[in-house]
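Exercise: predict the fold of this chain.
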Amino acid sequence: MQLLIVSKSSTIDTESIIKAVVGSPDVSVTVTDIVSDTFDFSPYDVVYWRSATITSRFAKVAGRHTLLSKNKGNTIFINSFLLDKPQLVQKSVQQAHLANVQNTVNTIPTFLAANETSFAELIDEKKIVLPCIAKPNQGSQGNGVVLLTSTEDFLNIEKPKEYVFQNFIPNNEDYRVIVVGGAVIDVLKRRPSSESTKSYLNNLSQGGVAESVRDIDFYNKMATLGEQVAAAFSYQIAGIDFIVDSTSNKIYFMEINSVPQWEIFGAALKEDVGKIILGYMIQLGRRQQLPIASLIQSYYDGCLPFMSKAKQFHYLSRQYLLLKDESVYQQLLTLRPHWLSDSQQLRTKAAIIPNREFTSKKSGGRSYRRSAYETHYKIYEYNNIFFKALFLKKIFNESTEDICDAIDQNDLQAVTLKLLQDERSLFTLSTHAVNFLYHVKHFFPELVTIHPQQIIDIAHKFTTEFDWGLEAKIYLYTHAIIGESKFYSDAIQADFQTYQSMVSELENDIFANYSRVNLDQKCEVIVCSQLLGIPSRLQQPVSQEASQSLSNIGNFVVDTLNSSADYSISVRKSLGGSEHRNVLAIAALS
């Protein structure tokens, strides 16, 4: 495999990648500068562009774009966004882009002012309040960043057209999140050194000090934000900077860098980033060599150490239950304390459900579920208890009698009857409603009698009434089958023919509305066929679709080919946000 790193010169960062090649005889890494637009990329499988002399011949934004657009071929280019949106290297465009594509990460209002008059107008309109920050629209390492305390300070900026202006955010430090292939490799804190004369600058190149983030909850929070931002920009390798307002504790996105330095962080780094980048480049180079399910599984297995403990447990538990992969059991045992440190937690939560009042403003996973969720919010509370209890029983072979004893059966029965009598809400809540009913059937069979034909009748009654009816129907049927299997654990024997008819009906619906059904649901229908031990007509077309749906970030599938794929870019297109879809794809397409 031939890998290329484009760099003006050898740096400690590129050297760390070269060093990692030792022991990989089938991999060759070349580091070279590019000085001519006739450079041929075709011999290389993967290219990671960091810097090149040729960009000085073009406007800074257009340099890489001009050359790479002539050399697309079959070569995989890391940070290929440069081909389509080269202007995303500009700080003003970054802030505007992120604000436009998502609403979960705070952005900083960013303004341009070509002259003193324009700057004064920003002040008069209170868009900018002094003191404010002025920084080059294109730049890195804190070079050129100044704090303006008066309108007169603006006159000291030599080329204001090349600057952006932002309100000053009081802070004690900022944070760098390093992302490779969608996985957050590390989260580092930067703060000014005690000797710094620029307390508003935390950059290491400006004398800042780096520390590793030790608080696990905060680390996970920053990692989630970094993962979502990288996905929103389609950056494959990135350094993403955030700042925390010391007065409000709000976290703001500062900028994203496609050529992050990592060796400068020194001992603060927990990981060998060069080695990880090499591994990532090799993974990308395998895209044409492995079947889609194997490709995805290999990728997630490699990224697993960088996921939160909760994500690790989610992924491995599905591997264990869906694929009957006994090799992951020891890992699940290790994660067990992180997933549930003490079953007393469940008993305590279960005991207080009867007196819980509705307070959440969540929509139950979809906006159309909001009203039904407010009426039947307790089923979500009980599902949280039941899923934990079911996994304790089916994965760890632990008794759940004490947890069941803590549940108020009178309240549980009342919640169950209320749901069964409200068929419209049952259909609307689909996944969550059916999960709840089958949990009750499993743990308290005397409290509920439910036959899959009831589910079919409800679906037939409401599916055509709503635009989202088909989606709800698919969730309703698939989770009835999954519920009967006790979440992939047991073979389905009771009502086999009825469940089989559900799968056949769903396959007909999907073929009739193929692009209206998201990839997650298509994979889930195939998994349900597998639970029933019957072949699925969807196997071949979905396998082909998945192969065409690989993320440009890494070897995992995203849902871009269907009209139903309207999820948040930053969440549903990220590595973590795509995990459930990819677990299903691994199982469905293996």
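Check your answer against the key: The mean pLDDT is 90.
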